[in-house]
Amino acid sequence: MTDHAATARIHEMMPLCATLGVRADTYDSELVALSLDWAPSLCTSGGILHGGAVMALADSAGGACAFMNLPDAATATVSIESKTNFLGAVKGGTITATARLLHRGGSTIVVETSVSDDTGRLVAKVTQTQMILRAR
C-alpha cells in the first residue's frame, strides 16, 4: 500500500523518483520499500524493463534506507559503490525494491536491496555502500 506522505518526501529528496513514478510503500529505519510500475517508456528491446530503471529504483531505496539510518551530526549520504546482480527479466507489472541496513559505521553505511516483481520473484540483488556526509 502506498504511503503518500513518504512518496512525496522521496520525490522531494530524489526528483528522479518523481520522474519515474516511484512510490514509497514502507519508509522507516528498519525497512524501505519503493515500487515502480513497468511502462513501455522504461524498457529496452523486447519490452523488458531497462536495467537502469531497476538500478535507479534499487539505488533510491538503498539511499533512502541509508538516510533513515544516519548517525548523529550527519546530514546526508551519497552512493560510492553499488553491485547489482540481475536475476530475471521484467516484462510487465510492478517491481518493488526492499532495502535493509547491513552496516552503519562512522564514515559509511552498507545497504542490501532485493528487487522483486509482483509475483514475489527475485529479479535483482543490490549491495551498495553509502558515504556519510557531515556539515563543514
Outline the structure in words.
The protein is of the alpha+beta class. It has one domain (4-134): Thiol Ester Dehydrase, Chain A (Roll). Helices cover 25% and strands 43% of the residues. The protein is built from 3 helices and 6 strands. The protein has a 6-stranded antiparallel β-sheet. A hairpin with a 4-residue loop joins strand 1 and strand 2 (32-37). The longest helix has 18 residues, at 51-68. It is globular and about 50 Å long. The protein starts with a helix and ends with a strand.
Question: Which terms would index this structure?
Answer:
alpha+beta, Thiol Ester Dehydrase, Chain A, 6-stranded antiparallel sheet, 136 residues
